[in-house]
Design brief:
Helix content: 25-40%
Order of helices and strands: EHHHEHHEHEHHEEHHEEEEEHEHEEEH
Catalytic activity: Hydrolysis of terminal, non-reducing beta-D-glucosyl residues with release of beta-D-glucose
Strand content: 15-25%
Number of domains: 1
GO cellular component, one term: cytosol
Radius of gyration: 20 Å
Family: Belongs to the glycosyl hydrolase 1 family.
Structural class: alpha/beta
Strand order of the largest sheet: 1-2-3-4-5-7-12-13
EC number: 3.2.1.21
Protein name: Beta-glucosidase
Distance between the termini: 28 Å
CATH superfamily: Glycosidases
Oligomer: single chain
Shape: globular
Number of strands: 15
CATH topology: TIM Barrel
Length: 437
């Protein structure tokens, strides 16, 4: 990958938000001190996780959070995006942990930015059930009531697209369903939950609310009309389906007709105004017409019956996860959103961007982050209103169906001893933040 990593990064605006991200299920452990989630049920089933592991201990952040906050302070970030475990909050004393964590962050001068749902749905709930959206609003109200005196920036949901596609359509993630297009109600109920959460946060006095949606450019495999049409469908399904109800108050291309309930009334809730829009970016997707055979993409099996096929992006370096490294795709994505949504797009925060590489001297990660920050700055120069950037992730962690085989952290975690060791990328990012002031 071509990079200017030896040269200073261009200057980002004053007040820019610099942070790192984690999620509760992936790092907290202490599973015995909370109720079960769909991920606990999923990982208990043989064959669901590639190395047979669970997140029962993970990084033991629940007990080691002071050490992890010290790592944040040493890194020099001004914000930390973590998630609040719904099953933990629903358990006796669960909110006490987040009370302690937020106090520790504030004492260290790090702004707490909680995500209120990051895939760990309580095991007795189901996103196919509309009532789950109302239960989520209750959860949000409880968290805001407890933490809202210190938390000033909130995220409702993380990546409802992946939770719908991987968890409910393809069965690769919890809860492991293979519903294909019958999973669309899951998307709608998550979006409704987002809108209800915005209302609950506003009622609690919150004034800085966003969502963390995953997005990436969709590239047709060729100029053939069938490939172009398949890519357009994929873009609708993975990008527009989750952006446009929130930003425009409507579903694209007649998809609203496939959603359950009073969709028009629900869309008025879903489209509650946001203060900013979160984007998780990893890579573009190259898409063509269906090939009539099963495919593999990012470790996930793509069924033959889908109306598209995912193809390799050639002549690009790959991360250890096999994901292509395409930093300019971030510029393309953000400029495309600006052009597509105009003044309906609020200020943008990159809520996740990162890569999986082995080793403590992780020069590949340094090159990756450097190139993506330059691509982000190019979008700023092109007029996109970007207000912040969060690296995924602070710690090596439980990487969902991959178990502990993928390492996204700036800090290495020995999963036998739980010892934390900052990597070369941690020191590099620390120096970047110092240079940015």
């Amino acid at each position: 990958m071509a990079t200017d990593a030896g040269d200073p990064l261009p200057r980002f605006p004053a007040g820019f938000l610099w942070g790192v991200s984690t999620s509760a299920h992936q790092i907290e452990g202490a599973a015995e001190l909370r109720g079960p989630s769909v991920w606990d049920v999923f990982t208990a089933e043989p064959g669901r996780v590639k190395d047979g592991s669970t997140a029962a201990v993970a990084c033991d952040h629940y007990h080691r959070y002071p050490e992890d906050v010290a790592l944040l302070a040493g890194l020099g970030v001004n914000a930390y995006r973590f998630s609040v475990s719904w099953p933990r909050v629903a358990s006796p004393g669960g909110l006490d942990f987040y009370d302690r964590l937020v106090d520790e962050l504030c004492a260290a001068g790090v702004r707490p930015v909680p995500t209120l749902f990051h895939w760990d749905l309580p095991a007795h709930l189901d996103w196919l059930d509309r009532d789950t959206a109302a239960r989520f609003a209750d959860h949000v109200a409880a968290v805001a009531g407890r933490l809202g005196d210190r938390v000033t920036k909130w995220i409702t949901l993380n990546e409802p697209a992946e939770h719908t596609l991987l968890g409910h359509a393809l069965g690769a993630h919890a809860p492991g369903r293979r519903l294909l297009f019958d999973a669309l109600p899951v998307a709608h109920h998550q979006l409704l939950a987002h809108g209800l959460a915005v209302r609950a946060l506003r009622a609690a006095g919150a004034r800085d609310i966003g969502i963390a949606n995953s997005h990436g450019p969709t590239w047709p495999a060729s100029a053939d009309p069938d490939d172009v049409a398949a890519a357009g469908f994929y873009d609708t399904l993975l990008n527009r389906l989750f952006a446009e109800p929130v930003l425009l108050g409507g579903y694209p291309d007649g998809l609203g007709e496939l959603m359950p309930g009073d969709v028009a009334a629900d869309l008025r809730v879903i489209a509650e105004p946001l203060d900013w829009y979160g984007v998780n970016y990893y890579a573009p997707t190259r898409v063509g017409a269906p090939l009539g055979t099963r495919g593999e993409f990012g470790g996930v099996t793509i069924p033959a019956e889908l109306p598209f096929s995912v193809r390799e992006i050639e002549d690009r370096p790959l991360t250890d996860f096999g994901w292509p490294v395409v930093p300019e795709g971030l510029t393309e994505l953000l400029c495309g959103f600006r052009d597509r949504y105009g003044d309906r797009l609020p200020p943008v925060v990159i809520t996740e961007n990162g890569c999986s590489y082995e080793g403590l001297d992780d020069q590949e990660r340094i090159a990756y982050l450097d190139a993506h920050l330059r691509a982000l700055h190019a979008a700023l120069e092109a007029g996109v209103d970007v207000r912040g950037y969060f690296v995924w992730s602070l710690l090596d962690n439980f990487e969902w169906a991959e178990g502990y085989a993928r390492r996204f952290g700036l800090v290495h975690v020995d999963f036998d001893t739980l010892e934390r060791t900052p990597k070369a990328s941690y020191r590099w990012f620390r120096d970047v933040l110092r240079a940015q002031g």
